[in-house]
Amino acid sequence: METIRLTAAQAMVRWLSVQMTEEGERFIEGMWAIFGHGNVAGIGEALHGARDSFPTWRGQNEQTMAHAAIAYAKAKARRRAHAVTSSIGPGSTNVVTAAALAHVNRLPLLIVAGDVFANRRPDPVLQQVEDFDDGTVSANDCFRPVVRYFDRITRPEHLLTALPRALRVMTDPANCGPACIAFCQDVQAEAWDWPVAFFEPKVWRIRRPEPDQAELAEVAALIGAAKNPVIIAGGGVIYSGAEEALGAFASKHQIPVAETQAGKSALAQAHPMNFGASGVDGSAAANAASRAADLVIGVGTRLQDFTTGSRTMFAPNARLVSINIHGYDAAKHGAVSLVADAKVALEKLSALLGDYNASPDTEARTDWLRAVDAHCAAPTGDGLPSDAQVIGAVQRATGEAAIAMCAAGTMPGALKLLWQPSQGGYHMEYGYSCMGYEVAGAMGIKLAQPAREVICFVGDGSYMMANSELATAVMRRIPFTVVLTDNRGYGCINRLQTLGCGGEPFNNMYVDCNVAVQPTIDYVAHAASMGAHAVKTADIAQLEAEVKAARSRDIPTVIVIDTIARDFPGTGLETSAGEHGHFWDVAVPETSNREKQRNYFARYLEQTAKAKLVN
Q1: Domain boundary at 299, 331, 365, which?
Q2: Which one of 5, 273, 448, 499 has the fewest beta carbons within 10 angstroms of its own beta carbon?
Q3: Are residues 345 and 454 in the same domain?
Q4: Are residues 65 and 184 in the same domain?
C-alpha cells in the first residue's frame, strides 16, 4: 500500500480539499479561522501549506464567522458548506451557539475545534476545563447536544473514519446538520503514514428518497377527498430544489400555499397560489385558509409553534399530512406521514391526483396584498416611521433579485408578513432566532449569491450584540446593505412583555432600564470606524435613495434610521390572541398583585384550552 507521511492536520486539510460536489466544486469551499492556543501550530501550519488550493478566511469572532458559514450553506440550499476552526477553550465555546443554530435549522457546518492534549502530559494546559470526576471531558463536550456528529481525535488515524462520517452527516438530506471534530492539539502535529488512496477525490451525492407506495397512496386519497386543503411550505422545499414542483402542484390543483419563515420565497409572492405567511406572524389570507382547511399539507416543515399558532391555528377536525424527508418531522402532531424528498413526493402525488382541484378564496389573497401595499406605503405625516414603512421603502428601492435577510426581533415577523420577494429572495434564520446572526449572515449570503443584492435588516439591539464582521466584509470587499432600525432598545421583547404577557415595561427599552444616563450611540460613526460606508437617514424618502446608492459600492453600506415600534396587522404580537385570532404560547404568570396581569392570565387559559395535537 502506497503511503504519504503527513501530520494529522495536514492530512485533514488535504482530504477536505478533494471532497467534491456533483457539479465539480469542493463541498467544503474553505475554512474560517481564528487562531489561538490549540489550533495555531497544527491546523494553522496545515492551512498555510494549502493556502493556494484550500482557502482560509479570518473572522473577528468565532460565533459570527460560523454564522457566516451557516448563512453561506443556507443560501446554497445545503449543496456546499464552509468549515470553521477555533482554539481550545473560549474559542471553541464561542462556536457552540452557532452550532445550535445550524442544528435547529438542519444546516451543514464543519467545526474543527482545538482540544486538550491527548497524551495529558502538560495537563492542565492553558484554557483547559477540568472535570473533577471525568478525565475524558473537555470544553468541547458542550458541542454534543448541538451537533449531529461529534468525534474527538486522540490518534491521527481516527481521521480515516471521523472525516467521512462528518461529511456523510452534512450531505445527508434527512440528518443534515453540523459536525464537530474535536482535534487534540498534540495529535494535530503528529505525523503518520497515510494511505495515498485516502486522498483520492470523492463526489458526495445528495440523494432523493422515493416515497413508500402505501404512504403515497394514503396521502393522495386524503388530498383527493379534501374540499379545502392548504399547503404549509417549509424550508425543505428549498433544500430539495422543489420550488418549481410546488408551484406547479399548487397551480394545477388550486391549493393555497402558506409559508413558514424558512419556506418563504420558495414561491415568488406573485405566484397566484401564494397566500403569504402562516401562523403567529401570518397573513389574513393564509391564516383564513388554514382555519378553514379540512386538510393541512405540510411540505418540508418542522411545524414550529409560530407556524401552527402554538397548535391553535387549524380547525379541530382538520387532518394533517406531513411530507418530510425525516420521519421524526413527518410524524409530528399526529400527522399522516409521507417520508420522501419533497420534489419527488409532489410530482408523484400530482400524477395520482389527476385533474383534482380545490376552490381557494383568491379574493382573500387579493385583499391581503392590497392591505400590505397600503401598510407599507410612505408616511404622509410627521413622526418616526414604522418598521412596515421601512420595509416598504426598501422594497421600492430594490430590484427583483434582492434578498432580504434577518434573524431576530420585530423584523422577522414584519418581513415574513410584508416583504414580497421573487423566488429565492428571502433568507431568515428563525429556527433559533439568534440575535447577532444578521451582519455575519448577510456576508455569508453575499458570498454564496454574489450576483444578488443582499439587504440585511437589523435592529439596534441585534447590531450591538454582533457587528464586527463588518470589518471582515470591508477587508474582503463583500458588499451588502445593512438597514439598521433604531428604536432605542429591545422593542420586540418590550412589546411581548407589555402587550403579549401583561407585564410592565422593564429592562428592555433604554428608558426603562436602571441606568443613570440614557445612551446615545452613534451607529454611523461606529460602522464607519470599521470601514463601511455609513449614513443616517432623516426620512423614508432618503432611505430609498440611500438603498439605491448602495448598489454602486464594493463595501458594506450601513443605513441608520430611527423608528417607532408600531403594530402591523396580523402579527399576533399586539395582543396575546392577535388580530386574526392566532396565538403564541408564552407562559403568563399564574398569580400577580396586578389586575392587568390577572386578566392576561385568564385570557391565556382561554387560548391554551384550544391547543391540541392535530390528528
Answers
A1: 365
A2: 5
A3: no
A4: yes
Task: Report if residue 606 sits inside a domain.
Answer: no
pLDDT attached to residue 565: 59
Cα dihedral across residues 140, 145, 147, 152: positive or negative: positive
Last residue of a domain, one of 160, 182, 203: 203
Beta carbons within 8 Å of 583's beta carbon, 6+ residues apart:
280, 309, 310, 312, 572, 576, 577, 607, 610, 611
Write the DSSP assignment of 482-528 as a string of letters. EEEEE-SB-HHHHHIIIIIS-----SSBGGGSS-SS-----HHHHHH
Of residues 326, 127, 129, 349, the one with CA closest to residue 239: 326
HEC string of 204-217 equals CCCCCCCCCHHHHH
Task: Give the CA count within 13 Å in the CB-facing half-sphere of 329.
Answer: 26
We report the CATH number of the domain holding residue 45 as 3.40.50.970
* Residues 208, 239 contacting (CB under 8 angstroms): no
Q: Do 315 and 404 belong to one domain?
A: no
Hey, what's the cell of 292? 378553514
Polymer length of the chain:
615
Low-confidence residues in the chain, pLDDT < 50? 567-581, 613-615
Query: Which residues are CB-contacts of 326 (< 8 A; sequence separation ≥ 6)?
Result: 174, 175, 339
CA–CA–CA angle 462, 463, 467 (5° rounding): 125
- Omega within 30 of 0 (cis) for the link into 124: yes
Mark whether 162 and 234 lie in a shared domain.
no
Domain that includes residue 335, residue range: 213-365
| Residue that is written with C-alpha cell 406547479 in the block | 248
End-to-end CA distance of the chain: 58
Same domain, residue pair 50 and 195: yes
How far apart (Å, rounded) are the C-alpha atoms in residues 338 and 99? 29
- pLDDT at residue 598, as a whole number: 81
pLDDT at 510: 74
CATH of the domain at 224: 3.40.50.1220
Give the three-class secondary structure for 171.
coil
The alpha-helical segments, DSSP class H, found in 76-231 are 90-93, 96-104, 159-170, 185-188, 213-225
- Which pLDDT tens digit goes with each residue over 408-441? 888 998 999 999 999 999 999 999 999 999 999 9
Q: Given this model, what pLDDT does residue 508 score?
A: 76
- Give the model's pLDDT for residue 470: 98
DSSP secondary structure, 120-138, as one string: -TTPSPTTPPPPTT-TT--
- pLDDT at residue 577, rounded to an integer: 30
